[in-house]
Design a protein that fits this description.
With about 850 residues, the protein is an alpha/beta fold. Helices cover about 50% and strands about 15% of the residues.
């Protein structure tokens, strides 16, 4: 029966209820006398006595990391003396009243405890800071010395995300956090030390390393924590990784690493478990294969930059890393729902097996320890374990009042254990999110229930809203952007996180003994994992899903004030349902931004536009209108999010052809943004396939989405709707061979309506002169629109500019770029020929409109 086996708790104990077994009642009544007496709703005010010591220790650790050990010891000594004086004075009786001594005593004890925590934090921070400055490594790093060292791997190696700088993209280097245990100095002597560094495997072999990673065979990416390797490389001052490391050790790739000590047995077991989960997910769809290991054990090696960006845009990045919620879900399976913890009859395997509350807490502690080992004892994992320990205490006691002191204790212990967490934004976000769930969310949930919202929905709304309200200002500091879809996206994925995590953990445990079963469990987990990835992609694709916001702490303060103002307005609106509905509709319209409505309100894109030049910074991305919602894309810019945003505002959902004029990164690195959520017919490229890394990138992205790649040849003609174009360059056999990718750029002659447009890619003077001499080039004299070659650089053929004689010249370049684009001489030559010159660095995105024979250019 539905109500069988459950009792109710009141102030006086257990009310009469359905009968339960005497054995099970005995176990939980005995253990519940001390740990589960009170119902959460019957407790008094929150206990905040541990909050000041925790906050004081946090601030002290953040400041004292740069102090010397002597200064830190002096601070600790002063704090110890003052704390002793305060404790002694607190014991002196008062002659005034009986109430004053109690208050005075508690105030003195609290202040003394705060000072002791400050002293302890100062000592811990001083010692940890000294580790970074101690030994020969910092001095060698300042001299950029080449050293041979033994390095103990501290965490899992990972691939860095490529960055675009002008026409180049940095390769995906392998990043390996570690600790130098022994280093050879100039005279050949070996010095023992313990200095944290960040190893970077040189970019020469990163393409091969990435391919090997995909096949599971990279020797560097397969290194386990606690492994010791012998490497030779150049030390440099720390510019990556923050103050936590004493330097960066750049290791030239020379084959497999030289291992001098194998990893510990515990790390080998953890490594086999993680490898088993990877193997179990190998056959899953791409998103689930990438997301599931990250969701379960924080293994984000398969997360693509595009998927990572989608999770950041929707504030779902916490699902890609190990968080307290992962451990909470597993503990909830063991202990049952928190609300039933104080009752005689709880749910979950533990009470059914007759395990007492104390025994269950110990079992949960062991599970937490195993969680830390498998997921690696990184700072993020330690934060997750601390948050899980808070929830473990809640499940064991069922008392909400104990949670704030538990959170403060966790913060205090973590800061003392690893003072570098005091400067970690991730740690700050973890504490804020947990604090929001413990303090703000219950009040908001109660308020929503009073207004008729169903309890489960009220709790979910309150939790997501509270976490977002407290964390959003810190996120704005890091990203200078505010997500408007974070709360609904978090609500939509909440019900899928638990089954994905549970099934993923089951696959993790099963893989070493029964891989077919693990694959079946992983397949089941792929459905909720795919749902989570789909929500992230859908939320990131919404045109108004986020708004730009001032970065830094000034922006955070402004956002905090704006959040308070919004909450005050919402509180007043809750009593007016119709007004709430109107505001909700307006918010949905602002986020979705239907193209027709957006065009009416903003005027962008202008009706009848024929060509749009996107503002993608220092790069190229041009769209040719080919019908309703259809456009031919010429180049993709340097960043997926920029070109994707441009195409969304233009309303482009179908792309019959993507033309990549050449393979420089500022033209092709944004390709995933063009492919994101759109129907793409084909990708057309130049036949000059350099740089090799970017060529492989394009082919890899095309293959992943089954988009064919074809080669552009001069003389080729195509048509799409009202648009037709001709490939003018490069010829089938380019003589002489081009000196680089620029002179092999695809050049297009385009007709759209009554306009003639010439797009020159990045052609330089040799190719421009050769193009002008080709048969039929005279058809493209006196064009309406010229897309100026190579971002308006000084390398232009003046004869071609005079021959083309455009009415409008468009230049795509980034604001304050280091190349000096566009060159003043090029702008002057274009204007001297009668052209109106517009540039994205000053004018933003540009759209060319054919207004009944009149040429007009609109700016976004």
């Amino acid at each position: 029966m539905r109500g069988e086996g459950r009792g109710e708790v009141s102030a006086g104990g257990v009310r009469a209820g359905p009968p339960v077994s005497s054995a099970r009642r005995a176990v939980h009544v005995v253990s519940g006398k001390r740990l589960g007496d009170a119902h959460p709703r019957q407790e008094g005010p929150a206990d905040l006595r541990l909050v000041p010591p925790a906050l004081a220790a946090w601030a002290t650790a953040a400041l004292a990391l740069d102090a010397s050990v002597a200064v830190a010891a002096g601070i600790a000594l002063v704090c110890l003396v003052v704390a002793g004086v305060l404790s002694a004075r607190a014991r002196v009786p008062s002659v005034r009243t009986e109430v004053l001594p109690a208050r005075r005593r508690w105030a003195g004890v609290t202040l003394a405890a705060t000072l002791l925590c400050v002293g302890a934090a100062a000592v811990s921070a001083g010692l940890h800071g000294a580790d970074v400055r101690r030994g020969p490594v910092p001095g060698l790093a300042r001299e950029y010395a080449i050293v041979t060292a033994e390095v103990e791997i501290g965490s899992d190696p990972r691939l860095s995300r490529p960055k675009v700088g002008g026409d180049r993209a940095t390769s995906s280097t392998v990043l390996v956090p570690g600790v130098v245990r022994r280093v050879e100095v100039r005279d050949g002597t070996s010095v023992a030390t313990r200095t944290p560094v960040l190893m970077i495997v040189d970019a020469e072999e990163s393409a091969r390393a990435e391919a090997a990673r995909a096949e599971g065979g990279s020797p560097w990416l397969g290194l386990l924590p606690s492994t010791r390797v012998r490497v030779t490389g150049r030390l440099a001052p720390a510019t990556v990784g923050g103050d936590r490391v004493a330097g960066v050790l750049r290791v030239r790739y020379g084959g497999p690493p030289s291992v001098v000590a194998e990893p510990s047995a515990v790390q080998r077991v953890a490594g086999r478990l993680r490898a088993g989960l990877r193997e179990a997910t190998d056959g899953l769809p791409a998103d689930a294969r990438a997301l599931l290991p990250g969701l379960v054990v924080g293994d984000t090696g398969r997360i693509t930059p595009e998927l990572d960006e989608a999770f950041k845009e929707t504030d779902l990045a916490h699902t890609l890393a190990v968080s307290g919620s992962n451990l909470t879900i597993i503990l909830a399976l063991l202990l049952g729902p928190p609300g039933l913890a104080p009752r005689v009859e709880r749910r979950g395997p533990a009470p059914r097996l007759g395990i007492s509350l104390r025994g269950t807490a110990l079992l949960g502690g062991g599970l937490t320890l195993g969680f830390v080992v498998v997921c690696r004892p990184d700072p993020s994992v330690l934060r997750a374990a601390a948050c899980g320990a808070v929830v473990l205490l809640a499940l064991a006691t069922g008392r909400r009042r104990s949670l704030l002191p538990a959170l403060a204790t966790a913060v205090l212990l973590l800061v003392l254990y690893d003072p570098w967490l005091a400067r970690s934004y991730g740690f700050l976000l973890s504490v804020l999110a947990t604090g929001a769930l413990l303090t703000v969310a219950p009040r908001w949930s109660a308020g929503l229930r009073r207004r008729g919202v169903p309890p489960r929905l009220a709790e979910a709304l309150a939790a997501a809203g509270a976490a977002q309200a407290l964390c959003a200002p810190v996120v704005a500091v890091l990203s200078a952007r505010v997500s408007l879809v974070a709360v609904p996206c978090n609500l939509l994925v909440e019900f899928a996180v638990a089954p994905a995590t549970v099934l993923g953990f089951a696959a993790l445990v099963t893989a070493p003994v029964a891989m077919p079963v693990a694959k079946a469990l992983a397949w089941c987990a792929s459905w909720p994992a795919g749902w989570i990835a789909g929500i992230a992609r859908a939320g990131a694709a919404l045109p108004g899903g986020g708004v730009d916001w001032p970065g830094g702490w000034t922006g955070a303060l402004l956002l905090a004030l704006a959040t308070v103002a919004v909450l005050l307005v919402v509180r007043r609106l809750l009593g007016r349902p119709w007004l709430c509905a109107v505001c909700g509709v307006l918010l949905v319209l602002a986020v979705v931004q239907p193209p027709r409505l957006t065009r009416v309100l903003t005027g962008w894109p202008p009706p009848g536009w024929r060509l749009a030049m996107c503002d993608v910074g220092q790069g190229d991305a041009t769209v040719l209108a080919a019908g309703d919602g259809t456009g031919v894309v010429v180049d993709a810019g340097p960043a997926p999010e920029l070109v994707d945003r441009c195409l969304r505002t233009l309303g482009i959902t179908r792309v019959p052809l993507v033309v990549l004029t050449h393979f420089h990164a500022d033209h092709v690195a944004g390709l995933p943004g063009v492919l994101r959520g759109r129907e793409v017919g084909a990708i057309e490229t130049t036949g000059f396939e350099e740089p090799v890394g970017q060529v492989e990138f394009v082919r890899r992205e095309a293959a992943a989405r089954k988009v064919p790649v074809v080669r552009a040849v001069a003389g080729e003609r195509r048509r799409a709707g009202p648009l037709d174009w001709e490939v003018l360059w490069p010829p089938p056999r380019q003589t002489p061979e081009p000196e680089g990718p620029n002179d092999a750029s695809v050049a297009l002659g385009v007709r759209s309506g009554g306009l003639r447009m010439l797009l020159l890619g990045d052609l330089e003077p040799p190719a421009q002169r050769a193009l002008a001499r080709l048969p039929g080039a005279g058809r493209w004299r006196g064009v309406d629109v010229l897309k100026v070659a190579h971002h308006g650089s000084a390398y232009q053929d003046p004869d071609l500019i005079r021959a083309v004689a455009p009415r409008v010249a468009l230049i795509s370049c980034g604001a304050d770029n280091s190349y000096g684009h566009p060159a003043p001489s090029t702008v002057a030559a274009l204007r001297a020929g009668g052209a109106r010159v517009l540039r994205t660095d000053r004018d933003g995105a540009l759209a060319v409109v054919d207004a009944g024979g009149a040429l007009r250019v609109a700016r976004d």
